[in-house]
Amino acid sequence: MIKILKAPLQLEPFLDEFRDLFTKPSYRSFRDLCAALSVCDKSKTVANLCDTMADCREGKKARSSYNWFFSDANWDENEVAQRKWTFLLSSYL
Q1: Distance between CA atoms of 33 and 69, rounded to whole angstroms?
Q2: Long-range Cβ contacts of 77-84 (<8 Å, 24+ apart)
Q3: What is residue 9's DSSP assignment?
Q4: What is the pTM of this model?
Q5: Per-residue model confidence (pLDDT) at position 67
Q6: Residue 86's Cα: distance from chain center in Å?
Q7: pLDDT band at 2, cuts 50/70/90?
Q8: 4 - beta bridge partners?
Q9: Theoretical Cys-Cys bridge with 61: which of 12, 19, 65, 74, CB 3.0 to 4.6 Å?
Q10: Residue 73: pLDDT above 80?
């Protein structure tokens, strides 16, 4: 399995579009999980996404922190979804 050290540079401009929707720690989780999603070749569980992140990666959080991001962090999933579609549509128009 491919292990990532950080988000691919090609993802950075896309991910920056979402920065204002998160606190700084939550944005780091969002960025890490998006990067892991881009290369994970297993089912997209938090455990598998964490396994995709290299253990030596600077700033890697515990799996419980990524679980917390989905269950308890204060961010609006509807706003993230809307922003994603707005960004993707503006890229094609």
Answers
A1: 10
A2: 79/21, 80/18, 80/21, 83/17, 83/18, 83/21, 84/18
A3: G
A4: 0.84
A5: 95
A6: 18
A7: low
A8: 53
A9: 65
A10: yes
